[in-house]
Predict the structure.
Amino acid sequence: SSQYIYSSFSLVAAGSTVKNLKANTVKQVLFPLPPLTEQQRIVNIIEAIFAQIDLLEQNKRDLQTAIKQAKSKILDLAIHGKLVPQDPNDELASVMLEKLRAEKEAKIAAGKMKRDKNDSYIYKNAADNCYYEKIDEKNDIRIDDELLFELPKSWQWTKLGRICDKLIDGDHNPPKGIEEKTEYIMVSSRNINYNTVADLENVRYLTKEMFEAENLRTNATAGDILFTSVGSLGRSCIYDGSLNICFQRSVSILKTAIYNKYLKFFFDSKFYQNYVVEHATGTAQTGFYLQEMAESFIAIPPILEQKRIVAKIEELFNALDKIQNNLI
């Protein structure tokens, strides 16, 4: 199994299409032969070392699983308002959302934007006189028959469409692209991972003219959230604005009126990932399309608490990543 013997056999292998070793050729290959008792000592040491390596690999897998579970728990605490304390001096989320609603109405009245058919209402927290449509016999909180959870008094439930200045998907009938590599690219859900735009060797290349026509639809800018909405569902990243990029339908692009990093972490939470799976539609290929996305529920903290939550998540995630990197 050593590299030395493998290289020796490779040198004497014959054949053009398929390499093969003949018995007489193999017999002529030299190899270093220790005394029999030393052979046994060598084997014992190799087996002991390999056993330790196998144990380390298993521990590494166990630790990676534990870290993944820890991150999921951190996000769960964060979106329930249990990761950082609430500050009574923070402006209530309901006040912030009302300001956002008024700003949007003013833009619509001025002709700067069109009313989105997916606009929805703000829902008050159960602690604020129970403005929910239903609290069932198990005391579960439901809106539109969706099972949610209780929030701190300063927080607010709302629908995603309510807090987006832009919510759109990529081209439903995209161009095939060109063979020549250019700086203008069209990506799909395969290129969106949980942190960045990736796998840029597997994209469609466009001419400048093709890109400018496609870009009229999505116009991705720095700070937009990219979300995989067809096929592989629920991955997202915050776009850094560094590429000439447009999208196929499998990616949704949104610009949020709240802190984009908080919303991205909310998307990563087990609650929202489960929501996406449960509300995806389609048979051959499932999708979490714009209508479903706009109608999905988001737990909104006060804006200053959003930033405190993000800072704490990043602090804890960085500590966990260091542990994992040290093991590797």
